[in-house]
What we know:
Largest sheet of chain A: 5 strands, parallel
Shape of chain A: globular
Shape of chain C: globular
Helix content of chain A: 25-40%
Low-confidence stretches of chain A: none
Number of helices of chain C: 8
CATH superfamily of the domain at 6-87 and 150-206 in chain A: P-loop containing nucleotide triphosphate hydrolases
Largest interface: A-B, 30 and 30 residues
Order of helices and strands of chain A: EEEHEHEHHHEHEE
Largest sheet of chain C: none
CATH topology of the domain at 6-87 and 150-206 in chain A: Rossmann fold
CATH class of chain C: Mainly Alpha
CATH architecture of the domain at 6-87 and 150-206 in chain A: 3-Layer(aba) Sandwich
Number of domains of chain C: 1
Oligomer: heterotrimer
Order of helices and strands of chain C: HHHHHHHH
Radius of gyration of chain A: 17 Å
Amino acid sequence: xxxxxxxxxxxxxxxxxxxxxxxxxxxxxxxxxxxxxxxxxxxxxxxxxxxxxxxxxxxxxxxxxxxxxxxxxxxxxxxxxxxxxxxxxxxxxxxxxxxxxxxxxxxxxxxxxxxxxxxxxxxxxxxxxxxxxxxxxxxxxxxxxxxxxxxxxxxxxxxxxxxxxxxxxxxxxxxxxxxxxxxxxxxxxxxxxxxxxxxxxxxxxxxxxxxxxx
Amino acid sequence: xxxxxxxxxxxxxxxxxxxxxxxxxxxxxxxxxxxxxxxxxxxxxxxxxxxxxxxxxxxxxxxxxxxxxxxxxxxxxxxxxxxxxxxxxxxxxxxxxxxxxxxxxxxxxxxxxxxxxxxxxxxxxxxxxxxxxxxxxxxxxxxxxxxxxxxxxxxxxxxxxxxxxxxxxxxxxxxxxxxxxxxxxxxxxxxxxxxxxxxxxxxxxxxxxxxxxxxxxxxxxxxxxxxxxxxxxxxx
Amino acid sequence: xxxxxxxxxxxxxxxxxxxxxxxxxxxxxxxxxxxxxxxxxxxxxxxxxxxxxxxxxxxxxxxxxxxxxxxxxxxxxxxxxxxxxxxxxxxxxxxxxxxxxxxxxxxxxxxxxxxxxxxxxxxxxxxxxxxxxxxxxxxxxxxxxxxxxxxxxxxxxxxxxxxxxxxxxxxxxxxxxxxxxxxxxxxxxxxxxxxxxxxxxxxxxxxxxxxxxxxxxxxxxxxxxxxxxxxxxxxxxxxxxxxxxxxxxxxxxxxxxx
Lengths: 214, 236, 258
């Protein structure tokens, strides 16, 4: 890192299916920081994460990564970004190891795929075709992607869905290690994940005050 | 970047080989439909010879469309498309290739079209002359048939990719895809059949082949951009 | 209007979407349309009436085709309109994709069925034209074939627009399709002409006639103008009803919200 990472958003609003989901959202995340997104279903947590990742264009507002708009310098931003959505992006016909190797290779910095499997207890399952995995095991495979190739900004959408207690602990440990190394984390979650010192963003506070036609 | 695209190509081919149903069906449809024609119009050799180029091209078009629906759908449904759209360029290349930064999606489309063509179009190019024998195709037409199909089927894959990207997540996606894509296929059909006919009647297939080549080049340049725009819409 | 708005935006704002104002009530458009609609109705009726009168009663019959040439006064302007309306759809699609202006989406959505209607009129009148002359109900003439393909481009656009639960997604996808289709139109026209010259039958069908006399041009242009105002009239009415439909959807969404 040549300069301290900083990820900020200002006055963000989002329109989905002709409905104004949230407006005026702002955040400021520095190296080692964490942001927890909370809110009821439909408040826009997933939309905000996709907006941060650059998959969704905001109806208004700006984002800034290292002081620059990610839309103008997408390559740098994407190299630092690791996104985990609702789905696991696991191909049933490939083995666990093949799935992970593919994503690690695509991210450009292969890192250590075997060690990543170990972090989430998937090492014994490496040669197994992914169609035989349970939902929780698939989620762990998706999480292993995060540590398989280093990325400074983690955007996680409901990472603990289907995970048992030990796996959640493994995730919390991985998050702590990531933040200690200067990484940034944004997590949308309903459940309890230990994130010491995390800023809170309750999206229901940013819903439109009056019924607004979009 | 190239290593990443090669990885995507390898993965798509590996997945297709392990789940061979889809692409095999398109080629099977090609063969079966061609066989239906003599049953429909009668086995008289001169009639079949007259309409053979048209039959081969029309059924190639239709077969080409069959597996298009799954081109992006599988990756879209399991979240892989999100991640591929976020794939980065390696930083050392950044200085040289600043303008390539928004390119992951068009290059991704090209890679997936290549995988699709290797699995569907290429077998059709190989099978076409064999089916031509069944239809009593004039001997003068075989060489040009293979060449024209080799130029035309990739163009069909590229144009079809636009339709596949536009109909991601749509109701009745498969039928809608056909409606969208068939009008865009018509130029390739016309030039392709004209080339084979010209070779058979000795009027020179070169201008038609040049037109097909031009269509392929234009498709290579423009279709990935349109498909990428459609994919970005689908991901929002 | 859009250009001056853009001037106030910074580069990054322009990329990330402009202010929310444009998503508010399109009241300016509604006021404008209420004023213009009666004028469009009157002008459409006037020009079509004049065109039909001159075309059917005043203009001379063709030396080759006799009285049946008069169907040209419906067929040719309808074919022109089919292409003109597609151009409008493509233009508003470009505006929709680049500036994300919701009115552009509505104009494209409202215009496509009107264009499809003109195309159908062109096809039916073209088919009727062939019957008395050559005894067939359909002729694979280069222009009729191109118009038929254009008809399917329209149908595809309408189908795609309505194929998604989210209307915005449908509008965006249809916009891309419209631009792709528009770029393809000259290619398709060229290939159909090419195809026609290759398969040219002994007698040359030319539904346009080799040359058109000035006395025939006047009613053609009158009809074209009349059809244009008719299109604008329908456009105003359909966009208004689209806006109302959207308000209803929003109200329903808010009722369903927790």
